[in-house]
Amino acid sequence: MASFKLCPGDPLVNALQKAFKANIVRIPRKKIQPLSVIGRRGSQLKYLGSLHDLLVDSPDLGLDALTEPMAEISGNRSRSVDFNFGVQVLEGFLQGFGLSSPSVKEAFKGTKELSFGFPQMQSYYVEPLQIGKAIAGKKLEKLNPVLAPYYNDAEAELLVVDSVFAGKDFTVKIDKTVDSETDVSLGTIGQALQVDDTKLKVQSTSNREVKFEGEDYLTFAFTCLKMKIDSGSDTIISVDAGDKDLVLESAKPKRVVVEDDPAMVEMEF
């Protein structure tokens, strides 16, 4: 599966995809960071590694990501979604936090609709102009087998991440139950999911909301710029690849949104 379709009109999805041109990941990952390189072939995404490690001689680029809180996301909630759809979203989130449990449906048994919140979302970013300045004249390692598939495929793209939106916690709110008599016991959810509370803490924040909190900030969404093979462009980064140069588009860098419609993307690691 290359993507997981989302419902249009969700305020958090709109903020990420429309305002920030961000790609939402189905399984949040710590590994996706600014200056990560992602290969795209058709609808398939593959994490290739850090830009630093894919350059000839692995030079120190002297780039440090800046951090700022995401007020547009933190404290806001997603729209309410039906139980089966919400469980699929929740399963992806929990997998990112190291929990692969078959008991998600059982833990929230009796729920009809639920929604999600992200209390402590942060942005980690490197300005595109700084990326361009740091990698000007640098060469990608042509002989690196990880990069080889992207030199000869006209449809393939190399994407460099310039910002990520990361959080170490998220909340799940039960908006509706199947009937007025159904009582979803939030206090037993962690036990039902077999959570290791040394790595993932589960606590009730209200009588209908539970918070999952991990140890590390994980990337829930990222923005990226496209590198392309075009010997006639004004190059920022080039690679020794015959008579072709690999370049990062330098005139008004345009962020790449992998899916046109609201969706969570999946990536191979």
What this model shows, in words?
Helices cover 16% and strands 37% of the residues. The protein has 269 residues and is an alpha+beta fold. It has one domain. Strands 1, 2, 3, 4, 5, 6, 7, 8, 10, 11, 12, 14 and 15 form a 13-stranded mixed sheet that branches. The protein has a two-stranded parallel sheet with strand order 9-13. A hairpin with a 2-residue loop joins strand 11 (200-206) and strand 12 (209-229). It starts with a strand and ends with a strand. Mean pLDDT is 82; it is low at 229-244.
Query: Span between N and C termini?
Result: 14 Å
Q: Specify the helix fraction band.
A: 10-25%
Largest sheet: 13 strands, mixed
Q: How much of the residues is beta strand, in percent?
A: 35-45%
What Rg is obtained from the alpha carbons, in whole angstroms? 20 Å
Structural class, by secondary structure, is alpha+beta
Count of separate DSSP helical elements: 6
Low-confidence stretches: 229-244
Average pLDDT works out at 82
Element pattern in H and E: EHEEEHEEHHEEHEEHEEEEE
Number of E strands: 15
Total domain units: 1
Shape: elongated
Give me a quick take on this structure.
The protein is an alpha+beta fold and 269 residues long.
Q: Which key phrases capture this entry?
A:
269 residues, 13-stranded mixed beta sheet, two-stranded parallel sheet, 6 helices, elongated
Show the helix and strand layout.
Layout: E1 3-5, H1 11-19, E2 23-29, E3 36-41, E4 44-50, H2 51-54, E5 66-69, E6 81-82, H3 83-96, H4 104-107, E7 111-117, E8 122-125, H5 128-135, E9 139-140, E10 156-177, H6 189-192, E11 200-206, E12 209-229, E13 238-239, E14 246-248, E15 263-265
Parallel strand pairs: 2-15, 9-13
Antiparallel strand pairs: 1-15, 2-12, 3-4, 3-10, 5-8, 6-7, 7-10, 8-10, 10-12, 11-12, 12-14
